[in-house]
Amino acid sequence: MGYGNLSIGAVSITTSLSIYFGLTYMLTNYGFRFDIGWYLTSLTPYMWACIGISLAISLSVVGAATGIYSTGVSIVGGGVKAPRIRTKNLVSIIFCEAVAIYGIIMAIVLSNNIENSVLDSVISKNYTAGFKLFGAGLTVGLSNLFCGIAIGAVGSGAALADAQNSSLFVKILIVEIFASAIGLFGLIVSILQSSGARISDKN
Whole-model pTM? Predict the structure, then answer.
């Protein structure tokens, strides 16, 4: 049984359970128990902000590691046939490392927006700031995760193509630069999302 069948089975089970519980709550007049607002406010704004920060750095590092793994395997494998590619294709590894650095930068920027807050009068603004910081961390984390995967795939192809024909390296490098721009876009969008979001008593 392949991964495709497992994925279809998981989606089918999840959809069936969601429909079952939704209809059960709706038809038995217990729909009030399904309260997303209660869940969102049951966690403190600090928790939402810290989850966003941890997602920013962890997903970025996973994306970078995946890209380095994909590219490194191809560089080592192609370097057996054509040793000249080992130095030139380290550019792909550097692009992957930049993905992790984007996540670290954004985690530092987000963590600077958190201060101690004890006043109840600013709790709604603190929740807004916590949700914004969570969204910013999730944005940069996911974009860097997929950016690392894209760089790894393109870098792997660049290494193998360069081993066969050295004139293809520059052409594929342009595609790799565009793939690495995805992480930069995610960084910019997350900075825009987190602008003005500060958890403090000064709101």
Answer: 0.80
